[in-house]
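User: Run a structure prediction on this.
Assistant: Running it now.
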Amino acid sequence: MRVVVLVSGGGTNLQSLLDASRSGSLGAAAIVGVISNRPGAGALDRATAAGVPTRVVDHRGFAGRSSFDAALRAEVDSLGAELIVLAGFMRVLTETFLAGLEDRVINIHPSLLPSFPGVRAQSQALHHGAKVAGCTVHFVDAGLDSGAIIAQAAVPVLDDDTDESLQARILVEEHRLLPVVVADLAAGRVRRQGRRVSRAT
């Protein structure tokens, strides 16, 4: 399965995928390209170091979301992507990008969705007094972190947690969970019927 990863920042989740690919634990999935909407994103350096082709589609060069999404989709299609992974990609994709890609775009989000969608999920969890937080891998639709849930991992929220300490604890689980889900998708172990998703073990 040809995988293209979309990134915006430092790329630690991308690194977890690259490491899994190098060790063979990504199974039938092969990372064929990394695309960033931000020039100079650290994730691009990680991809280059791993020998993975990179491209930049700078959202600031477009008049609106639709034109950006059309250009991004063209780049993804040119790489022959069979699965698109949003790994710290800080843009909400529209139907311009998503059309025809049902069950082929996934995202990892640092909360136990449907709780705390959007940005600063860890801060939201602390503000609301959550006792458990975590991360979610889900299919992407045109909403805000609203697609069908594939897998989740939970972590405790400690009494002395800060945004940073909770983020670090969740990130450990993100790095573990995302490669597992990508490998499962490539192996055909993920099935969806409407909002219900099952994973074979």
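The CA atoms of residues 5 and 130 lie 31 Å apart.
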